[in-house]
Every structure is written in structure tokens, then in C-alpha cells.
Amino acid sequence: MIWNKGRGTQVLNLLRPKTTVSAHCDLPCGVYDPAQARIEAESVKAICEKYAANEDPVFRARAIGIKEQRSQLVKEHLWVLWTDYFKPPHFEKYPQLHELFNKATKLAGGGGGTKSSMDVKTAEDLLAAIAEIDKIFWETKQA
Amino acid sequence: MIWNKGRGTQVLNLLRPKTTVSAHCDLPCGVYDPAQARIEAESVKAICEKYAANEDPVFRARAIGIKEQRSQLVKEHLWVLWTDYFKPPHFEKYPQLHELFNKATKLAGGGGGTKSSMDVKTAEDLLAAIAEIDKIFWETKQA
Amino acid sequence: MIWNKGRGTQVLNLLRPKTTVSAHCDLPCGVYDPAQARIEAESVKAICEKYAANEDPVFRARAIGIKEQRSQLVKEHLWVLWTDYFKPPHFEKYPQLHELFNKATKLAGGGGGTKSSMDVKTAEDLLAAIAEIDKIFWETKQA
Amino acid sequence: MIWNKGRGTQVLNLLRPKTTVSAHCDLPCGVYDPAQARIEAESVKAICEKYAANEDPVFRARAIGIKEQRSQLVKEHLWVLWTDYFKPPHFEKYPQLHELFNKATKLAGGGGGTKSSMDVKTAEDLLAAIAEIDKIFWETKQA
Amino acid sequence: MIWNKGRGTQVLNLLRPKTTVSAHCDLPCGVYDPAQARIEAESVKAICEKYAANEDPVFRARAIGIKEQRSQLVKEHLWVLWTDYFKPPHFEKYPQLHELFNKATKLAGGGGGTKSSMDVKTAEDLLAAIAEIDKIFWETKQA
Amino acid sequence: MIWNKGRGTQVLNLLRPKTTVSAHCDLPCGVYDPAQARIEAESVKAICEKYAANEDPVFRARAIGIKEQRSQLVKEHLWVLWTDYFKPPHFEKYPQLHELFNKATKLAGGGGGTKSSMDVKTAEDLLAAIAEIDKIFWETKQA
């Protein structure tokens, strides 16, 4: 999986469009960026790793609570992209997009997603789903 | 001003460290990224531009309210960096850092900052201050 | 469109089905109910009506701000249903469901939806979309 | 106790009164509905049941945290009814109303209410108190 | 009305009672203080004064939005005192307490209270009601 | 350390300075008061004490979660003072002020502060830092 890290690999960046990313509030201002969801998901993954390495009960209780919030933020950032950024022509061109977003937000939820799971693997699956969204997002920005 | 755009220029990226960005929740998880403040500030700037171009009173009332929230998010993301990411050795190495953060958060506030001003220039000043913070941030990540 | 007002007469209540409604928090607790989205959308509609009838500038500024929040709540309640309640078999049985939710949440948003529009008609379109979702929801509960 | 489930059968809907429910935001928009408090309280009850049936420590930690939030939402929805919907003439006609609301909100709190108790019985007492409020509410709507 | 400004001179502090103030979160931690409601209400009053003195439309739109939030905080702080601090024996001893709280929270609301009114006098009435609550609160703490 | 409890006796009130406290929202309204941070920090301290005295696992899980929120509120109230109340001339006159705020907000955080520590001593250190800020704050108000 190749990420767009707020940095990314050199190769990918050389090919990237230079246009400024845009729209995420619902004015809409036109500034959207999947990096917002990705940063929260990286936090979720880091929390799972730290949880596994630390058996202190206070630390673990805090980790569970904070991971809940960060997973929620992932869901919210993804929902905004799905509803506010993507338009009917995008869904026509990428027929898998609805399911991809539905799967990704479920992966950040309580029914087996990163809210309920302490498994680093679940967080990685979430990051992979966000990466797929990110790839499509940037393709549509180029179009 | 050269930005780290979630993309950045090619030249800068070639020189960038490959380490993954890290810590922003207060577990702490170790994932921090000034991109969070920058994205909100870009939104603030876009709102000012759209406000200037649209005299509809409902649009303008919404723009003022949303810009207030986005400016607040800028402040919160910056405060987290200042308190949670930066440590005493950083403040020693970068003696201007306290003032820089104080100025940047004031630039997102109500006393002449982007909360009270509709001026695109104020949003650009805020973006420039965040860019300075961003530069120092990535230097400390390399160290 | 006949709404399910959350209220019947005593007589009607005696005839009511006893099945418990189910899951909306992300434990998940299993209590979901489209009434949550509908109540907020009714509030949005009432705000549009009151706005049209009152030219006081303070009242109007407040109405615009409050309608923004209530529209946001509609979006959040709908997103929770889409991601957390509905499962792959539902989407198979109701292939229009993704688009219906995407359209409904856009109708509560800023790009022509109830956040940006003061038009009672827009709020009615939103209520109609929620009613469609409500119908499918209760069909799946009975299944 | 007969609840008003926010859902009847098609047949029942045909017989439903057409009066619009009314006011819950503080414009005020005039849309209030005790169903909002009830749905959250049903979630609280379901969480207590699931907690009793599942000894996994991560699940239990999450349940405690989420029940705290849902109980808080019950309190907020009830406070809004007490302050914003009910007027002096209502308090005259129903002299028990102040105590009823005070008791109901305490039942959703931390001093023996559903925030601190994992007991299903406490959640049921809360639901019963909300049902009493609901009954009075709809009487005042008919008047 | 003499307020309890949260501030005395050094000399006065030496004479201050040492009793610890007490409970406001819903653990409950036992720290309550009507100063929280009062500070927000003072902010509301100051906003009304500044609004009257400044006709800039952006300033006025911001003032209306911020006053809405501060009034909401007043309501929340008062509701917490009413539900969480005050117990049945207090309500017996101060039979006016329910009405006093109901009136005070209405004074911070949208139906003629400080949310809808830009009138400094309304904010002063709110402050007077909080002062009455404050007086009773401290009597009960001494008992 | 003598605290400024937000409460004196009637006699003391007669002697109280009449100056109005000032600005904490970002209009700015001009009402600031370090009492807001102090009250939350006192809550944090009380939670640590109650935690130590109660081994019930549900109580302890709730205490950890609530202390997290109250510590966050301390940070937010302090950040507002640092960014919005204090101006360049204050930082010139009190050159230790930046570090004092940075230390105080770290003391309410997750890296050894009151978010991560259950130790009453940490909460006392936080209260002492707020007391230092409070002292400087009131000196600047008198100037």
C-alpha cells in the first residue's frame, strides 16, 4: 500500500497533480483531504500497539476510551467525503465507491471494527480502505 | 512560503525523512501532524474568498458561523502541538517557538484574527505562521 | 406521506406491536430508530417556516445558525443508520439504499440542501427521503 | 407501561392523529418529542443487558463509557423539555411535574442513576419516569 | 446585588473561609460552584453591551452566535446544579427552588431569554436569578 | 496556597472590589477568569481521591473517563487565557509566563499529567500552577 503521507513517496509525488486540495466544511468551502481520516486512523493503530505493550489497567482503560473517539473521528471524516465531496458522476465512474465507504466506516465502528477491536490488524485494514479511497479521491481531483 | 501540502514540492519531498508522522491524541499515541491545522486554515481562507464573492445574506451568515468553527479548530490543533508534542529541549533549541505559537493562535482568534476578520490576507498570515511551525516540527522529527 | 409521529392515541397504543426498537450507539447496543433523524428534520422545516414569517434580523441570524446544527444532526443520525444498522444483505435486497442515503444526507447539507436553503420545499424533500428510509428500515426489522 | 414506539403498522398509521409534533431547538422551532429521551434510555437499558451477558474486559470498559454518554443525552433531552417546552400553566396543572423531572434526571445521573449503575432495573425505572413525562406531555399537546 | 467575583484582594483572601468548594462532574466528584454559570452570564451581558455599541454586520453576526453558545452554557451549568447538587431535603427547605431554576434557565433560553434578546436588561435579570441560586447554594453548603 | 474560592462570607462581600471580571469568549467579550480552570482542576483532584478510596471496577472505569474530560477542560480554559487574554506587554513583564502555561497545560495532559496519573499529588501540582497563573492574572487586571 502506498500512502499519501502528507508526504508520500517521491515517485508518487512527482506524478501528482499540483492543484491545491480543497473544501471540507459544509459551506461548502471546497477543501477536502482524506489525510484527515488517515491521521486519525494512524492514531488508532498506534493506540492498539501501545495497548498491547502496556498492561497497566489505567493506561488500558484510557486507551480504550481514546481509541473510541479517534475511530469516531475517522467515521466522521469519511462520511463527509462520501456525502459532501463525491457527486453522482463520481459514483458512476467508480461503482464500487458506495461499498468501499460503507466497508471503511464499518471498519472504524463497534461491530468488529476498530472501536471494538484492540487488534492492530483491524487498524491496518482500516488504513488500507482509507488508502483506496485516497487513491480514487486524487484521481477525481485530477480529472 | 513552501508548504508541506499533503503533497509539497518534489524537491522538498526528496529530502524529507521517511519516518511516519506521529501521536496527536493525549494517550499520547505519538501521532502529530501540523497538516491538521493547515487544512482547517485553508478552509478559513477559502471561506473568506467565497464570502467576498457572494453577497447573499444567508450565505454570508453561514460563512461567518462556519469560519468561526474552523478557526477554533486551527487553535485547538495548534494548542495540542504546543503543549503535547513540543518538549523543553525543543523550546531551548527554538527560543522563538512560544511566541510563534502565541502569535499563530491569536491569528486564528477574535481580536483581529481569522474569527473576526473576513480579510483573505489575515488567513494568509495564519497559513504563513502555521508553515513556520510546520518547518520546525519536521526538523525536530528528523533530529 | 403518512408519518409515524412517535405518538398515537391510547386506543392505538393498545394495538401497537410490542417489538422493541433497536441499537444506535456503537457498542452496538442494537437500538436504532429513524425517528431521530425525522424529528431533527421536522425542526429544520419549522425553522424555515418561522424564518419566512419573521424579518427581525436577530431572529433570522439565529434561525440560520440553528438550522445549520439541526441539519448536521440529521446527517449524523442518517450516517449511523447507513453504516451501523444496515448490513450487506440489506444492501443486496434494497439496491437503491446507498443512493438513497447519499441523496438524503446531501439534502441536509450545504450544497443545495437544508443547510444552505431557507426553502420549506427543501426540508420537505429531506423529510420524504427520510420517510423512504424509514419504510425500508421497518421492513428489515420485521424480516 | 405502554410505549409509544415511534412505529406502528401501516393500518395503525392510517388511524394516527395528524397533528404535528412540536419545537425542541431553542429558536424555539416548536418541535418537541419525549421520544428523544426514551430512545436514549432504551439504549442505556440494552447496554446494561449486554454488559451483564459479556465478561470481556474491553467490551465492558466500552459499555461503561458509552452508557455514560447515553445517560447524559437522556438528561439533556429531559432538561430541554422541562425548561423550554413546559410553561407556568403546565406546572400549575401538574404540580408534580418539577419533582418528576428532577427525579427522572437524577435517575440518569451518577448518584445511583444509570450513569453509575449497571443494573437493568435502574434503566427500567428511568424508562418508567420518562413514560410518566411522556403521558403528561401528550395531554398538554391535546389541550 | 453584590457579586462574588471569584476574586478578592490579598487581605480579603486571608480572611476567607477555607472550606473547599464541591463536586460538579457526575462521578459525582462533589465539586459544584454557581460561579460557572455566573461567569458565562457575565459574558452574555458583555456581549449585549458590545453588540449595542458596534454596528458592523460581521461583528453583530458573530455576537449573536457566540451569545447563543454562552447562554447554552449557562443553562447547562444551572441544570447540573438543579439535578446533581440539590437533593430532596434542599427542595423541602427551599420550596421556591424548582421555580427559581426553571425561571433562571428560561431566562437563558430562546423564548424571551438571553438567547433571543439582545437587551442588557435580560442578561441582568439572568444574573439576578443566578445570584439568588448562589445565595441558597452557599447556605446549604454551610448547613 | 490560599485560593480564591469564588465565595466569601456576606461580610467579606461587602468589602469586595467591585471591578468586573473580564472576557473569555472569543468575540472577545472581555470576561476571563482563571476560576474556570481551577474549578475543573479541583474536580480532577477530588476524582483522584475518590478513586483511591473505592475499588469498585465500574466506579474506577468511570473515574478514569471523567478525569480525562475534566483535565481536557483545564487545558482548554488555560489555553484561552494564554492566547486570548494575555497580550505581548504581559509576556514582556512576566517573561516566565509562556513556560508557566506550557508546564500547567502539560500537567493536565497525558504524558505524566492528570490525564494519565491517578496521583493526588499531580492534581495538586496542577492546582499550584493554576494558582501562579491566577496571581499574575489578577495583577494584570489591577494594572
From TrEMBL, chains A, B, C, D, E, F:
Which molecular-function annotations from GO does this UniProt entry contain? superoxide dismutase activity
Which species is the source of this protein? Actinomadura adrarensis
Name the top EC class.
oxidoreductase
Q: Which Pfam families match?
A: Sod_Ni
Keyword set for this entry?
Oxidoreductase
Protein name as annotated: Superoxide dismutase, Ni
Cross-referenced InterPro entries: NiSOD_sf, Superoxide_dismutase_Ni-type
Please, which domain of life does this record's source organism belong to?
Answer: Bacteria
